[in-house]
Write a structure and sequence with these properties.
The chain is α/β, with parallel strands linked by helices. The protein has a single domain, classed as TIM Barrel, CATH 3.20.20.100. The protein is built from eleven helices and ten strands. The strands form two sheets. An eight-stranded parallel β-sheet has the order 3-4-5-6-7-8-9-10. Helix 2 packs across helix 3, helix 3 packs parallel to helix 4 and helix 6 packs parallel to helix 7. The relative contact order is 0.15. The structure holds NADP nicotinamide-adenine-dinucleotide phosphate. NADP nicotinamide-adenine-dinucleotide phosphate binds next to helix 10.
């Protein structure tokens, strides 16, 4: 181990490796073709393991019938599953995304492998039920793995229905979402008082508000966290445009800024899974690579922040 990197001492490496060992178990089915294993974290309410890199679909999967566009997204999805990905997050709010995900899961033969997550985004009990049934049909799954309430919309009406669905086995987990700082206080109250399996919110190098309360609260309450907008919709790449990666980030296995951004997020032990969205095959490869190898410990994550903030 080189000592020229003050933050990547032998101890740091052991801590980082230890963090992974504490969260990963290996089974033959999880061995990938290249004998690599993806980093996984348990869903606290069940112990089921989830790969730390998932996939978002806002914008990227809202496409029509253009064969070239669909062929590209088919490859994006193939690369996702080939690299150990399972969780795909969608919503009826994302236009045709749920249907396109459903079509491509079928086309790539991944209907069994997927951990399907979507949301209810409407007002009223019956509208919610109708929408959730439609989402299952569109995504082509018998049981929705995770049903979330989108941006807390009419959550007092939907939450009892989601509980009923979980009890009936029509969905396996239930959750709540928000993004970019909206509804954080309401969300905190819900996390503190309601029994839910997952919470989804924004967290990235630019927007670190969730570090103060949401992430520790979710960890305390045993609630899995899905992290949306990991690249702040691409703003992070615009900020670092033209800047070289710091040498020391290579010790974590970062070859690109995308991996730097994602490893920073999943290095936080309160994060269960991050859901970057991309329409490009090479970006999907890039993102999936962040879910292998080492993760930064607290000291390294502080250094990553300092460096990013200095740009
Ligand atoms: N309230 C909610 O429930 C809520 C709110 C926001 C988001 N979400 C979920 O979170 C997901 C992610 O958030 P997001 O889609 O808003 O934004 P994001 O993942 O932070 O950023 C997506 C942008 O990053 C680019 N990108 C992806 N990988 C890249 C890479 N390796 N290198 C360079 N550029 C890359 C993509 O462009 P390319 O296509 O060119 O790669 C796209 O423009 C959403 O898709 C959605 O599923 C949920």
């Amino acid at each position: 181990m080189s000592s020229q990197y003050p933050y990547m001492t032998r101890r740091t490496f052991l801590l980082a490796t230890g963090a992974i060992a504490a969260t990963v178990t290996l089974s033959p089915g999880e061995l990938l073709s290249e004998n690599r294993r993806s980093i996984q974290r348990p869903i606290p309410s069940s112990g089921e393991l989830l790969p730390v890199i998932g996939m978002g679909t806002w914008g990227t999967f809202d496409v029509g019938d253009d064969q070239a566009v669909r062929a590209q997204l088919t490859e994006v999805m193939q690369v996702f599953f080939e690299n150990g990905g399972t969780l795909i997050d969608s919503s009826p709010m994302y236009g045709r995304s749920e249907s396109v995900v459903g079509d491509l899961l079928k086309a790539t033969g991944n209907q069994e492998a997927v951990f399907a997550a979507t949301k209810v985004w409407t007002d009223g009990r019956q509208n919610g039920i109708d929408q959730m049934r439609q989402s299952k049909q569109r995504m082509g799954v018998e049981v929705m793995d995770l049903m979330q309430i989108h941006n807390l919309r009419d959550w007092q009406t939907h939450l009892p229905v989601l509980r009923e669905w979980k009890q009936q086995g029509w969905c396996r987990y239930i959750g709540m979402t928000t993004s970019h700082g909206r509804n954080h206080q309401d969300l905190e109250r819900i996390l503190a008082t309601e029994e839910i399996d997952f919470v989804q919110f924004t967290y990235n190098l630019e927007d670190r508000i969730a570090e103060a309360r949401l992430l520790p609260l979710a960890a305390d309450r045993g609630i899995a966290t899905l992290i949306n907008r990991p690249f702040q919709r691409g703003d992070l790449f615009r900020k670092v445009k033209g800047a070289e990666l710091p040498d020391w980030s290579a010790e974590l296995g970062c070859r690109t800024w995308g991996q730097y951004f994602l490893k920073f997020i999943v290095g936080n032990p309160a994060v269960t899974c991050v859901i970057p969205a991309t329409s490009k095959v090479h970006h999907m490869k890039d993102n999936m690579d962040a879910g292998f190898g080492l993760l930064p410990d607290a000291a390294m994550r502080r250094r990553m922040i300092e460096h990013y903030d200095s740009l």
